[in-house]
Amino acid sequence: MAGPPARSRAELVLSLGVLALGIGATYIAFSLPETSSYARVGPNFMPKVVAAGLMVMGLWLVAEVFTGGWREAVPDDPAARGEHAFSYVGFAWVSAGLFAQMALIHTAGFVVAAMALFACVARGFGSTRFARDLALGLVLGLGVFLFFVKFLNVNLPAGWLLPLLGGAGL
Amino acid sequence: MTETLQALMSGFGVALLPVNLMWGFIGVTLGTAIGVLPGVGPALTVAMLLPLTAKLEPTGALIMFAGIYYGAMYGGSTTTILLNTPGESASIATALEGNKMAKNGRAGPALATSAIGSFVAGTIATLLLTLLAPIVVDVALKFGPTEYFALMVFAFVTVASVLGASMVRGLAMLFLGLLFGLVGIDDQTGQMRFAFGVPELMDGIDVVVLAVGLFAVGEGLYVAAYQSRVKEELERMSGSLMMSREDWKRSWPAWLRATAIGFPFGTIPAGGAEIPTFLSYALEKKLSKHPEEFGHGAIEGVAGPEAANNASSAGVLVPLLTLGIPTSATAAILLAAFQNYGLQPGPLLFQTQATLVWGLIASMYVGNILLLILNLPLIGLWVKVLMIPRPLLYGGILVFATLGAYSLHQSVVDLATLYVFGLLGFIMRRWGFPVAPAVIGLILGPLAESQFRRALAISQGDPMVFLTHPISAVLLALTLLLVLVPWIIRVVRERRKGV
User: Fold this and answer.
1) Domain boundaries in chain A?
2) Would the ipTM clear 0.90, i.e. be above it?
3) Quick check: B193 and A43 CB within 8 A?
4) How far is B392 from chain A (nearest CA, A)?
5) pLDDT in tens, B282-339
6) pTM of the model as a whole
7) pLDDT digits (tens, 9 = 90+) for B358-371
8) In this structure, are residues B87 and B35 in contact, taking their beta carbons and an 8 Å threshold?
9) Is residue A42 within 8 angstroms of chain B, CB to CB?
10) For residue B114, what are the CA distances in angstroms to B18, B94, B317, B378?
11) Gap from A2 CA to chain B (nearest CA, Å)
12) Cα Rg of chain B (Å, integer)
């Protein structure tokens, strides 16, 4: 007998994920104290209900996997969805942009972080003009920074550009 | 009746103040823009702007948020007609005929019938909202915590089971949203729940981070992975915007019928605008004197769905404002905006914050006029917006989206959480889990829990109270039917197939 097709494997993993989340939530819910007031329902009641709900849905999804797969599932073939095959490059560049922003925002500042994010995302969407995208990201980041700091009085980190933008917040 | 008229007049006094006109204008312009742009919807936009509630006064901010909400319905049609990629889900039905009309060189009349139809439907639906809201408020004033809890359960289950393809996956996402809603300090006892000692989790999961993560980051990852290498064809804006006599004759009955379908669907928790647009499309196809044109660019097929989605967006505000029950993801985020100001939508809001509520309703009449102007004479401008290359558009979306989440606490932890929710959003989109139940669960869940406890406190712990109160019993029975009937039908059908 051949192994299950890739499709039902993904469905099985996700179904078990929902079930596991329900089991974990149940464990935590039962560890919460029953500090019930006269209402007779403590802070642990709703967690138990929600945890039970997740477990039931998880079990239900698992059952669907073993009885012919999820009902009304999204087609696995990208062409059937009018899309192309999974692009690792696209996914990775968008992720890289978001991680770059996390790494840069408190050191290099908001503007540089926005520039990096913008250029990486554009790259992930197939743009080949990295230098132009960096420049556009810089302009967008600067514009947003000045608008937020000067006009809305929201504090954003200036970072490396502090000597240039230092007075902007004042 | 005269009371309503008086309240509405004072509302216009608020809505026509220059500063509120400005917020309304910003709202509907932004709404049109994001409706036009693929990849950004009203739920995401309002969520991104939620941190601004700390800076703006409530009336102006809420007028702007509402403008974004119903403005997006106008803008969506432009993208759908010229690009055949629905700008938002409520425009899918429009795509069927609208893009065909554009291909036949009739883009102008298609855009005109959707803009004028949106205006007609939006205005009639706002009028219905004006008339209906005080009536619902009168009824709702008699509701206690028991009735509210039952109503919320009903809303949860309808949203989870009607939206999306599969009821099980809808309910799974509802419980996930409810779980997110439990994270943090319990209001009533101060007990910490599901926070794992992480300080950032003690205040609970912020709706901005969840919504922006699911809608913007998840969408960005998904589109980059599966759609970024697809070439899109933009139809030329050709033909004059003028509708012929024949176009008018075929459009207006469709607008009115669609309003009659869209508004009631908006008021019940059926997930907003998708279902009424398809119903309207089917109805127009059935009633049309030119059924042969359907599939090749029938103007009724554009007029109906576009009017229906605008009527439903005003309908959604009925339960939101009068009962505090959101019936779509955007409505849930609007509810969060009220909460940021310490306001709880519901019948009491009409008494304690009458000028705010009626100002908001009056602003919708004004907003619809602004939208008609923005979407007819200025249509050329929006077509230019559509030409922004995808890589730059998504770069910009993610810069603004992350800014919204970051500006909450100036914290990198929020950005990391955002990415985690983005991955979750990717998985949900890829494997067909609906997003709305999760967002509604997060926001409405804590309210439902406190109503539940209050109801039990009043009944001194007797759970039968939910069944002895007639309104609550009926709502809970309806909820049960809603879950069981489709399931039974399916099981019976599968059995028959098996035999």
Assistant:
1) 6-81, 88-169
2) yes
3) yes
4) 6
5) 999 899 888 888 888 899 999 999 999 999 999 999 999 999 999 888 999 999 999 9
6) 0.92
7) 999 999 999 999 99
8) yes
9) yes
10) 29, 9, 22, 14
11) 24
12) 22
